[in-house]
């Protein structure tokens, strides 16, 4: 396993060399070009070392990577490639000060080629892995177990273990109250007596009990019988269908988190890495545009360039949200009035910025500071939160994650004024869906669709 991981990391590093050469051939006709200097050669030689250092954070070398779906694997590869891409830009802009000679087309094509070649590399690695018989060879080292329980959890467990090449367990027998539909190699048992005999005769190391409180099995009798053997008993609590949340230990006691977000600590790391790198690249690439917008705002009306407003972040903690100022200076007492269509407070420049959502660009600074994420529920004014949290059930669940510049609700048409509870309810429902179904690939999808349809529309003003 360790040898496979090291081999993949080495090949991924070499992939960037090949990708850079291919891109140079397409863009320049040769790698060294007198009009561009040697910054491209420097990037090609540095990219393997960058990849070696940053790509493990994307999780693409973890044990069991080949068990995940194609989209998840592609998402991890893309995250690793983008991390190398972003680090390369940072080196050129900040360390080498050669941004004026860097060909964006060449570096972008290098990213695409590296992503495609890394994907092909994993397809080949997976095929070699299967042909070499690793899945069959590891079978003899698996701990032999028997399972007992109701249909759904037992069937799910057997399927998961049978499809897991790196799992340390193999199901030899199952005692279940229904046809589990497992492969013929799993012995189907009918009674506790059969289970007890099977455990003794076949030297079963563990018996996993997955009881359903509503079923008819006498679990006390099962435990009493099996305790008289040398096998290890392992109890898996099966909760009612209504309880489907995250299980863990708190102060040494088992517990279920009833309103858990799906993102875990590893997901937080991947999301944070993507946020910081993506926002830094955006701010560097769009710095001329940001400067032009700042000048236009100053010329259009008196007042500061940036509009600062308190918003609630993750955990309900307040932070200062940044936007380009789009309205004339005015005072509001103890309330925040939502912007409306043809709002007289909006300046001419501000109307264009709001229509194109360019007023949101300073929030990439919030992302760099760690207050926001690129993708997440949009932050609302504190006063709006105070109101809607009493009107809409689970409204504050949105703050289980960092607020975002764009989100699932925004690409599904929930933009602009929320002048009715129904509009806000739909926005909240979509935000909760995002939190419940988060994945890195979903974030990539949202960013992709935002680029095409999320920045403007009939509801944006």
From TrEMBL:
Protein's cellular compartments: Membrane
Signal peptide positions (record): none
Main location (coarse class): membrane
Keywords (A to Z) from UniProt: Membrane, Transferase, Transmembrane, Transmembrane helix
One CC-aspect GO term: membrane
Primary enzyme class: transferase
GO-annotated molecular function: undecaprenyl-phosphate glucose phosphotransferase activity
Ranges for domain Bacterial sugar transferase: 271-452
Cell division keyword on record: no
Chain segments annotated as transmembrane: 42-61, 73-94, 106-128, 277-297
InterPro entries hit by this protein: Bact_transf (IPR003362), EPS_sugar_tfrase (IPR017475), Undecaprenyl-P_gluc_Ptfrase (IPR017473)
Protein topology in the membrane: Multi-pass membrane protein
Superkingdom as given in the UniProt entry: Bacteria
EC numbers, comma separated: 2.7.8.31
Family: Belongs to the bacterial sugar transferase family.
Annotated NCBIfam families: EPS_sugtrans, WcaJ_sugtrans
UniProt protein name: Undecaprenyl-phosphate glucose phosphotransferase
Organism: Candidatus Methylospira mobilis
